[in-house]
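Dear colleagues,

As part of the handover before I leave the project, I'm documenting each prediction I ran so the next person doesn't have to rerun anything. This entry is a single chain, and its sequence is reproduced below.
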Amino acid sequence: MATIYEIHPETPQRDRIDKIKKALQDGAVMLYPTDTVYAIGCDLNVKSAVERVRKIKQLSNEKPLTFLCPSLSNIAQYAIVSDAGYRTIKRLIPGPYTFLLPATKLVPRLVMEPKRKTTGIRVPDQKFCLALLETLGNPIISTSAHITNDYEGNAPVGNIATEENFGKAELFDSLEKLVDIIVDDTSDPGYQVSTILDLTKENPAVVRRGLGWELVANWLED
């Protein structure tokens, strides 16, 4: 049964962040809120935990996993960012955007897209995520807990529904035996995924329209 941590949405409690950090370093998998949807995640560098996330989501090793970073400088450690890509990312973060980029050697093979050697990275606009990233010192895996049409193309987990009337209580109940930690910051689960931008080439390409798409559309028109 998962341990539930109630986190203040604006000022996450330091002692609880520290406990979650220690659990992730020890291989825990968590269900947690982001600025888009509730996500299933773990420490990027704990292989056994990443394998568990894949098992929960029923994802093959050919399907890439997105992870969260706290800043643009942190992204540059895990991805090769062109000058144009740098300007794009700087303009949009923090926010509901996933950037597809060529991965560096710091990205575990179990996480990246194996053929293209690319990875998906986000900088979330969410207090809990940013506080945990700062404390942990490593990126956090972030794969949606109840949305099927993300760029991984995955199926729903167990009996997790995709309708908007499937609330937080149902989401927690459906995953409490599969994860070790559930983070509750009093927010309702979101149902709008991130906008995905492919920055592997000179010009940005939109892979998926999600939250914040209008800002990108206006910018591309300009």
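The radius of gyration is 16 Å. Residues 147-163 have pLDDT under 50 and may be disordered.

All the best with the project,
I.
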